[in-house]
Amino acid sequence: MITYSGRTSAARIEDTTAILSADPDLTLDEIVATSNERFLDGEHVPLADVTLLAPLQPKKNVFCVGRNYLAHAEEITRARGIALDLPDVPTFFTKAPTTVVAHNTVVHMDATLSQMYDWEAELAVVIGKRCRDIAESDALDAVFGYCCMNDISARDLQQKHLQWFKGKSLDESGPLGPWIVTADELGDPQQLQIVCRINGVVKQDASTAHMIFPVARVIAELSQGLTLEPGDIIATGTPEGVGFARNPPEFFRNGDTVEVEIERIGVLKNTISLTETKGI
């Protein structure tokens, strides 16, 4: 989704051009649900002249997978002084829809709630077909596309509340974008380099080939007895290099620039603002 000259529109990005939908009422949700069949070519405008919004505003919680890279699971156990115990199935949790914000925006984090905001670069999957109990061999057929996500986590809240939802569901803690690359364009989701940079310094650098549970397995497991719908988002886990597991631990500071870059998708960039938030 983009804004251009005051108009909010679904758009297709080609190189440095944004092609707006000729149908002003067409939403990206409808495009996802109809596999792009209703997208009509409208005005062509330079990408530099548009503002990218979050590609989707989910109607329900973002599904997430915890500890889905072996090296990340190992760094967690070292940091916490516990034994490595890998599950036989993916560990699922969710982030609230209000976490989702766009590329190139300021992310406002409340410094009175936490001083331990951490980064997690992730490959996000956008579901394009309604499915339930789908086989792993068919699961990638249900994918509309992929984008970058930063699962920003308040580590102290995450530990305090035991269950991960609260520490990972603060407003604006789920930057998503910069756009969706369709499944047919991206190809194999298990052959992508994923990088996180803070102020230009690389903090995470790994391949999605190192996932414990690949994308197809994640979708298949999640769909068992649970209907997935077009527009659902699944964040597939983060690789090693998160802040709290470093020695000494590192967390976001006010004014930090964070970039999540995924091969064949692009760069999701945001600025962190740590302020004392007093509510709406």
Pairing-aware structural class of the strands and helices? mainly beta
Give the helix tally.
Answer: 5
Multimerization status: single chain
Tell me the CATH architecture of the largest domain: Alpha-Beta Complex
CATH class of the largest domain: Alpha Beta
Helix percentage: 10-25%
Per the CATH scheme, the topology name of the largest domain is Fumarylacetoacetate hydrolase, domain 2
Mean pLDDT: 93
Poorly predicted regions: none
Strand order of the largest sheet: 8-7-18-12-13-15-9
Number of domains: 2
Taking the sheet with the most strands, its summary is: 7 strands, mixed
CATH superfamily grouping of the largest domain = Fumarylacetoacetase-like, C-terminal domain
Instruction: Give the N-terminus to C-terminus distance in angstroms.
Output: 25 Å
Order of helices and strands: EEEEHEEEHEEEEEEEHEHEEHEEE
How much of the sequence lies in strands comes to: 35-45%
Which shape, going by the Cα principal axes?
globular
Task: Report the count of strand segments.
Answer: 20
In short:
This protein is mostly beta strands.
Describe this protein's structure.
- This protein has 2 domains: 2-52, no CATH class; 62-275, Fumarylacetoacetate hydrolase, domain 2 (Alpha-Beta Complex), CATH 3.90.850.10.
- The chain contains 5 helices and 20 strands.
- It has helices spanning 28-33, 70-80, 155-160, 183-186, 215-222, and strands at residues 2-4, 7-9, 11-14, 17-21, 41-46, 51-52, 62-66, 91-95, 100-101, 106-110, 117-118, 121-127, 143-150, 153-154, 174-182, 193-198, 201-207, 233-235, 257-262, 266-275.
- The chain has a 7-stranded mixed sheet. Strands 10-20-19-16-17 form a 5-stranded mixed sheet, with no helix packed on it. A 3-stranded antiparallel sheet has the order 2-1-6, with no helix packed on it.
- A hairpin with a 2-residue loop joins β3 (11-14) and β4 (17-21).
- The model has no long low-confidence stretch (mean pLDDT 93).
